[in-house]
Amino acid sequence: MNINAAKAALAHLELDDNPASIRSKSRDFFWYSPVLKARLDHVVADFVVSPRDEAEVIEVLKTCYAHDVPVTVRGAGTGNYGQAMPLAGGCVMHLKNMNQIRAIAPGRVVAEPGIVIRDLDAQTRAQSGQELRMMPSTAATATLGGFIAGGSGGVGSVRWGALRDLGNIIRLRVVSMEAEPQIHEFTGEELHRVSHAYGTNGIITEIEMPLAPAYDWVSTVLTFPGFAEAARFGAELAAEDGILVKLVTVCEAPIAAQYFQRFKGHVDEGDNTLHLMVAPQSMPALETFLARWPAGKMIFRSDAHDWSRDPGVAYEYGWNHTTLRALKVDPDITYLQVRYHGADFLEVIEAVRARFGAELMQHLEVMREHGQVIYAGLTMVRFTTEERLEEIVREHEEMGAMIFNPHRYTLEEGGRQSADARQLAFKREADPKGLLNPGKMIAWDVPDWGYETIYAYAGMRAAE
Ligand code: FAD
Questions:
Q1: Which PANTHER family did the record assign (predicted)?
Q2: Hey, whose CA ends up nearest to atom 20 of ligand 1?
Q3: Backbone torsion region of residue 134, taken as left when φ is above 0, otherwise alpha when ψ lies between -120 and 50, otherwise beta
């Protein structure tokens, strides 16, 4: 790895070698996990470069290839798994300057990867009355490229499913890391080569996404005295095809009372809460539906309320924002990502609650999967030790609740514990030296890895 030669060759680009800023651009939200915090805190790149267009991306890749310098691409660094952290050092390629929209048409938008999702939505709304079908709850800071390469779904998934579902990404333009970088245009099955691949096998330089009609979504909060009923309400509301919702979040008591500062005085320790985004024209139907559930109460609606402090948009209480709010109050909280599907998913959730009691607090998000309503759990855990966390994971799996482990930094361990043949095959073609985001794809490093223990990337730079 010849860092100095690469830096000299790229000196005419926007290059940052200030140690404090390199350190901050080498980090993401990995610290959500005490397991990752213990392993990745020291990780730092050698320099940061911010290309302005695809030609400069190609120049960076070609130069780093020639000098054997690893390249880890960065959107906004809001990922939770250390995805954007340069384990082997080298170059962080920051895409903040590639933030233009190229075209907006009925049902679609073409944009550069570094655009912040909220800015993209503002422009598609203003110009065409449309918005992205789904976005992470970090839309105010996260980039579109980071969402495609590192995210999975979020606000909107209640209606549209996950990012990986057919039709939720239209086209990706991707640059490879070779002596002569190649440009690829992917649609259909080929999208799976690089979507959710953590930038390990190509740099996405242009994205075409589907759009839906935009609404002034009404943020709504409901309370229920019983969690099981709140969870059933959420699932049944999402299955009401005529009621247009973009978010259905369920939080077990006492999450709202303890961690949502602006809810003080409006909720009790025993209140389980639902946080909804509802299209304005669907509010009367929501009220009708709620009237069939005598235990449920609407305590807030953003279009008509008398709270002295506005709690803000509903989605910043959902997805991983729920965990963030808890962490701000109690740093010993961590979380799990769970999938509850199958006909008996509400029973499995209740069995998990009975098994773990107060050690876990349930936080559920409704998603659609092949037309069915399911729950994703972003369960809060009162962390004690790594061993206990592992036990909790194992017990969930034994009870039929699938875990996507957020305490791992590799694609495989954070996913389905198996190699993705399409991503690996494309990496062989597009990154022959293995320089893109090294250490994140186990199948590249150790093809026969057995997943019995946490993977430790051998090429990770030691702490100084
Ligand atoms: P980064 O963190 O910078 O990058 C993510 C990954 O993508 C990295 O591996 C990076 O190398 C790679 N990458 C970035 N740009 C490119 C590119 N152009 N080409 C190839 N690879 C690239 N995620 C969800 O899916 N849904 C949620 O609702 C959600 N809520 C969150 C809430 C909180 C409070 C936090 C902290 C995180 C949440 N996340 C969520 C995770 C994360 O915020 C999102 O996935 C976000 O979209 C990542 O965007 P980013 O620009 O920050 O990407």
A1: D-2-HYDROXYGLUTARATE DEHYDROGENASE, D-LACTATE DEHYDROGENASE
A2: 199
A3: beta
